[in-house]
Specification:
Blueprint: H1 2-23, E1 35-41, E2 51-56, E3 64-70, H2 88-96, E4 100-104, H3 116-130, H4 132-135, E5 137-147, H5 149-160, E6 181-185, H6 203-208, H7 216-221, E7 235-240, H8 248-260, E8 265-270, H9 283-297
Parallel strand pairs: 3-4, 3-5, 5-6, 6-7, 7-8
Antiparallel strand pairs: 1-2, 2-4
Length: 298
């Protein structure tokens, strides 16, 4: 009887794992044989937004460099599958070139104001660092990549890590991780540069809980440029020439601060491109992204 129960349990467990794989809406973007560890709770709780997915190359050997993927959506929408839909070739080539990829969810600004989003992102990275051996990751080779609001968070993660800002971390989990590089797709660099900085209903106001112009202290604390110093990791900044949501002044300011601090940074301005879309998945951009990751993670 015990043997029968065990067999039934294993069948149900197998079905559950297969169901997880099938319910992942982007798994078909990845190369055949990609190993998925889906919906992993990274904070030992039941918060729906405290989940991440790990994608591993097929037949991987040794410890893998890791790219941490942070989605956009104005800090108040989307999920860990977002942005992959129009970046299909880039996502596939990241894993196809031998990198692991982890895509993380974080609480929306409508659920919790900043710095909750940074706490979540850093907690997810802590989980990946602490469980690197379990998933075959090289904890000394982490990079972070983000899109729009995710680009903002990715930049903050890379720039503020060496400042050891206590408010950006939850209790528990390691703080020993570091980033070897940051890929910032059209992320805001300074909240006060938004034209609606006096609008209490703007996404950036909802993020910090006040109109940025009325709370410059909160705006400064939530702006990546605040944390630029000479010890920061290299940046690859990619922005649309005709971005209607995040001004080109944002990337110009971030690049200028990085350059003044002698932090290596590269700029790719995508001709005629809007805020996001398939234009950012073009061959020439994808080559630059993969080369950046290879240079700094391998």
């Amino acid at each position: 009887m015990k043997k029968i129960i065990t067999v039934v349990f294993l069948i149900l467990l197998s079905a559950s794992v297969n169901c997880f794989s099938q319910s992942n809406p982007v798994i078909n973007i990845f190369p055949s044989g990609t190993v998925l560890h889906g919906n992993i709770p990274y904070n030992n709780d039941t918060v729906h937004k405290h989940l991440l997915d790990i994608y591993l190359p097929a037949n991987a050997k040794g410890k893998l460099p890791l790219v941490i993927f942070v989605h956009g959506g104005g800090w108040l929408t989307n999920d860990k599958y977002a942005d992959m839909g129009y970046m299909k070739k880039t996502v596939a080539e990241i894993v196809g070139n031998g990198f692991a990829l982890a895509s993380i969810d974080y609480r929306f600004s409508t659920q919790a104001v900043f710095p909750a989003q940074m706490q979540d992102c850093n907690r997810a990275v802590s989980f990946l660092y602490d469980n690197a051996d379990k998933y075959g990751l090289d904890k000394s080779r982490f990079a972070v990549m983000g899109f729009s609001a995710g680009g903002h968070l990715a930049s903050l993660m890379g720039l503020a890590k060496n400042n050891n800002v206590n408010a950006f971390f939850m209790t528990g989990g390691s703080r020993q991780f570091n980033f070897k590089g940051v890929v910032d797709f059209y992320g805001p660099a300074d909240l006060l540069l938004f034209p609606g900085s006096d609008d209490t209903k703007s996404p950036e106001a909802i993020l910090i809980g006040a109109a940025p112009i009325s709370r410059p202290d909160l705006s400064k604390a939530a702006s990546p440029v605040t944390y630029v110093d000479k010890n920061d990791p290299p940046f690859l900044i990619i922005h649309g020439e005709k971005d209607e949501l995040v001004s080109t002044k944002q990337y110009r300011l971030l690049s200028a601060w990085l350059t003044l601090a002698s932090v290596p940074n590269e700029l790719i301005i995508v001709k005629d491109a809007p805020h996001f879309g398939a234009m950012f998945d073009a061959d020439e951009i994808r080559v630059e992204v993969i080369n950046f990751l290879k240079t700094h993670l391998k």
